Every structure is written in structure tokens, then in C-alpha cells.
Amino acid sequence: MSRLVKENPGVRSSSLGTTIATRSKGVSPRRRQKRQISKSSAHRCITIPFRSNDAYTCQLSLLIILNAQSYQTLRLVRQSDSQRIIEVERPKATHLHFDDLLYRIGGAEPSPLQPSELDTLEESLVAALRLLHAKNISFPISAKQIELLQPSPQKVPDGAAFPTLFFSYNKEASWVSDTLPPTWQDNQLFAAKAIFRTAKILLQLSDPSFSKPFRLDLQSQHILATYMSRGPASHHINRCLDVAPVTAELAYRIALALVLRNNAKESLEVLESFFGGSMPLPEPNASPDAIYASLRDLRARVCDSKGYGPTELTQDLSDELQLELPETAARLVCCRAQIATLRKELEASQWWLVAMNLYDTFLSSSQPSSILERICKFDLYRHRNKRFL
User: Fold this and answer.
1) What is the pTM (predicted TM-score) of this model?
2) What are the tens digits of pLDDT across the range 226-270?
3) 3-state secondary structure of 385
4) Distance of CA 129 to the CA centre of its chain
5) Rounded CA gap, 328 and 88, in Å?
6) Closest to 243 (Cα-Cα) out of 320, 326, 329
């Protein structure tokens, strides 16, 4: 039992907070209703069992710490040290998922949050993380884990029902150990800030008063690319088309998001804009290194012609606009191959052979990061077999 738990024997009758919504990874906002607690069961006690004493004492300490600092969290109903279980309830309020709020930005409905409100929520989350870190608790966070409590308009003066952060059950929370990297605190704080930075960037891209093209710094483009990798809303993809100049990382994420939605024409336009024209189909016997060098030179000429150099931009951004990584080049070719398939191009099979060749050389040492890479790894379209027929 941790020191903190031992020093709080009265926790068994504590007044901490309510129910746990079981989270499944990668669930879109439109499917979230399956994992949300129904109205009829929203206030029943939920029992959480723990396999280890460390996990049990960590989660129990979390409830004590957050409640003591008046953060909205689960209310502890009962604990059993011998069984390593706790029972909790949710507070009586409307729960909003941050992913749902992100989805609504730039859509048909007005955004429920503005930059100043996002700043307040960010400051609250960062302060809570610093508090937990000081108590030797690691608390990894992502957008799909963040919940907000929406106060009842009847209880708020002037109808200004501003949401507050709600700390639900985070199964990734743990006591600090040697298995964490030396930068674990900075990593978690950066991830927390990036969540709200994503919302601010999407608000900026959705603002009709902003002139196009949108110029984003390197960090903003990286945050946006990370968000795009999670399966963004279609209207957010369209907003990203107005970002220029665009890094290789973000260009790939936009092209991939479009082609996975069968938007071959739009995805091809992204690639042609990035390379300054049509991507030439490499010669059948060209080596992966030669193919990468050719694509890198194409992109370099585009950057030179548009003045994307260190004198006009920051050095970091200027470098990232180039095609510096062969892995990114391979992934862009995978997009081009899928575009050829969707467009029923005669060269589709040749594009896939090139993509698989690049995948084997530059990407095969790690697990596939997209369905297109899985197609290459397992030759799901059977283009290698066709070559020998």
C-alpha cells in the first residue's frame, strides 16, 4: 500500500466521483454511443478490479489527490484492499467527449469551444498532470480519453454553461518506474498541450476571415499530421488542403486520408502539388535508392522554385518541406499505387510493384502503419504473383 493511501484511512467513506465508460481504441464519434453509459445506468456503482497491488494503490491515490484539489473525478463508493477492487460513480452532469468536440469544429454546427476556453481547459489539465507527476504518478493522456462536464444551464448565471475537465478512469496511469523514459514528464505534458493545440489549429483553419493559403509552423504541421493519422473528419481534411507550404509528413497524411476515403482525384492532386507535377512511374529495374533520390530531387526543385528556403522560412521548417526520409517517399508511392487502383489505370500493377519494392527496403523492419503498407507486406492484391504468370 502506498504511503499516500496509508495516510488517508478515511478514504472508505470518501466523497470522490461516479461510473466508468469502457473505452475501445479507435472508435469514431459516430460509434461512441455504444461505449457510453446509458441514462438508466449512469449512476449505478461500477466495480473496477486490479491484478496488482501497485495498480490498485495508484488508482486509489489518484482519486484522493484529484478530489483533494477539487478536480472533477470519479466518486469513490467502496474499496477493498484484500480483493483489490474499488467501486465508483460518476457525478450527475452531462458528459462530453473531447473527440466529439474536435469533430464538430468546422462542421455544420458551431464550435462549442473558443480559443480562450481551450486555454483555460489546457491550463487545468497541465496543472493536474504536474500535480500527479509530483506524486510519482504517470498519467498518459490522449484526446479520446478527455471528458468534459457540461453544467446545467439552469444552475449557471446568465446561461454561460462553461464545461470543466472530468478525470475518468485511466487504465494507463501507473506509479513511476524505471521502465519509463527519462523524458516521460515532458512527453506527457507535450501530449496534453498538443490536444488543445489541435483544436486551436482546426478553429483557425475553419475561420473564414483567415486568408489562404494557411501558413503553419513546423510544430503545428506535426500536430495536425498526428491528428490526421487518427482518422479525421472529412471537413477537416478539406481544410488541410489550404495549408501551404506543406511538410512531407503532412502531405502524406492528407493524401492517405483522402485515398482511404476513395477520393483518388483529390489525393492525386495533393501528390502532384507536392512534387510539382505528375509522379513519373520509375523504370522496372530501378533500385529503391535511385527511386527515392529521384523523388527527393523532384521535391527539392519545387521548394527551390517556390522559395521555400531558410531565408524565407525557419531552418527547421525549410528542412521538413524537403523529402528527407526514404520512409516517407515509400509511403507516398503507396498512396500513388492505391490511386492508380481506384482510377483503374493500366499501370496500377507496376505502381504496386514499385511500392512493394520500396516497402521491402525502407519500411519492412517495422509493423505496417496503414492498410496500404499491409497490402505491400502481404501482397494482398497479388501483383507479385501476376508478374510471374
Assistant:
1) 0.82
2) 999 988 899 999 999 999 999 999 999 999 999 999 999 999 999
3) helix
4) 19
5) 46
6) 320
